[in-house]
Design a protein that fits this description.
Rossmann fold, 7-stranded mixed β-sheet, 5 helices, binds S-adenosylmethionine
């Protein structure tokens, strides 16, 4: 399948996401800063990294950042923007729903507004391959007016309906428990249009990652 994300310009995506009435790019950026600083990790994999929103908050002690996305133009722009992370940032072009997926290990997976486009089962498959100690996800809780907020860019996203999955906290927590991870932390951020972003962190039941940084 030619994924609809391959047809969306990064500038259209980002311009929509940062509208004052949407505010998702800015809110995600602030939430990512916390995601990167909350755990004592050395390697992190960001799924659906797009143009690299939030990467300016990568702490100096992180030695490797994998940015995964299926859109190669997004990854090229991400690398161009973060030349300062050369040698640390490695962009991996990959379709996370693909059957022969290979991914390196990382201590932490960050998946912000990504599970909505691959579904629970493919997300579990990614986790099986990467074997992280912790997983920090942000999901969007929608109001009745759909998963894409109203904006002048609305029709740019028309094709996404065919790959979109509704993700909700209880089902995601159950899927993560099946994969051997327990819910550790939950935080919510309201958005201007009545939607909200919910961060859910899961930690590995077996590996005993050193306790969260307070
Ligand atoms: C809603 S955006 C999230 C962007 C980002 N986390 C942010 O802070 O703006 C979803 C991203 O996931 C990527 N994506 C969607 N489906 C994918 C798949 N099957 N495999 C890999 N990346 C995918 C898209 O190309 C897009 O960059």
């Amino acid at each position: 399948m030619n994924n609809p994300w391959n047809k969306i310009n990064l500038s259209d995506y980002e311009n929509h996401m940062k509208l004052q009435s949407v505010m998702q790019l800015q809110t995600l950026n602030e939430m990512m800063k916390e995601q990167f600083h909350d755990y004592p990790i050395h390697t992190v994999m960001i799924l659906g990294v797009a143009g690299g929103n939030g990467l300016e908050h990568i702490p100096a002690n992180i030695g490797k950042v994998y940015g995964v996305d299926l859109n190669p133009a997004y990854l090229a722009e991400c690398e161009r923007r973060y030349e300062n992370l050369a040698g640390i940032l490695e962009c991996i072009p990959a379709d996370l729903t693909g059957e022969n997926l290979t991914l390196p290990h990382a201590d932490m997976i960050v998946a912000d507004l990504l599970i909505e486009y691959i579904g629970y089962r493919c997300f579990q498959n990614v986790i099986r391959k990467v074997k992280p100690s912790c997983i920090s996800c942000i999901i969007q809780i929608n109001t009745d007016d759909g998963f894409v907020s109203d904006s002048p860019y609305l029709h740019v996203f028309d094709g996404l309906q065919e790959v979109h999955h509704n993700i909700e906290k209880t089902a995601l927590t159950t899927a993560m428990e099946q994969s051997g991870y327990s819910l550790d932390t939950q935080k919510e951020r309201p958005l201007p249009n009545g939607k909200k972003l919910v961060r859910l962190d899961f930690t590995d039941n077996c590996q005993h990652l050193p306790k969260k940084i307070k």
